[in-house]
Design brief:
This protein has 8 helices and 9 strands. It is of the alpha+beta class and about 290 residues long.
Amino acid sequence: MSNVACDGQPTLQQQVAILKQQLAQAQKLTAIGELVSTTTHEFNNVLMTIINYAKIGLRQTDPASREKAFEKILAAGNRAAKITTGVLGFARNRSSGFEPTDLGRVVDDSLMLLEKEMSKYRIRVERQIEPVPTAWANGNQIQQVLLNLLINARQAMPKGGLIVVRLSLDAAADTIDLMVRDSGSGIPPETLRKIFDPFFTTKSGPDASGKGGTGLGLAMCRDIIESHHGRIRVDSTPGRGTAFTLKLPSKRPTANPSQPLPIAQQSPPAAAAEARSTSLNAVDTATR
């Protein structure tokens, strides 16, 4: 089939590129909606804390009690500011270009946005943040990937469990590695190779929180990471859990250094999703 434009109409390849960009935006809007639903309850709790301690401060006459009430109000106000800053930062349409990005800050912001949700579902989060150089990345896109992986990890443990988030430097591969590991049920080998395929999902639909079930999350994650000249590695053992590792270049790429490879211009899924399996329980997306 020809990709040559006729009568000024977009070529087939251009139409696919436009649809991919629209899908990426739709995915982001969905993620924003999910974050707002998660953080609204938490923000209401913060407001109630401020109101209650303000009432206590008004009733008390001794300086020590009033000072304690003011300290609680200040702490709650700072918490509210972090919540709104996190949501607004994720929602804003930032530049599509790359810049030096502190991935430790991305991790902290993402965990703060999901703190209430993790607590609700009895998930304990362990942070293992090592000193790493700044990554040449689009922080907003990396946060979108990280939030998706964290939500998937939470959904893999309906009865609660442990999520480990580790940031480290792989000097041998010259990459900055960001890993999300859960203690959930794991992914069977026959399913593992398909998880990055668009519309493939093991879920029957959104869970009780309204998240997931479309089969688009991991496919979009793969596209974003490959646009960063990186890759995603998945290690999973049924009954023991799953680990997703984002491997991002620790140095500014020499090819096309000022802009990422646009998500919409990447290879078709059949080519871009080519995977190397180092064992029955591991898949590593190929760098394109």
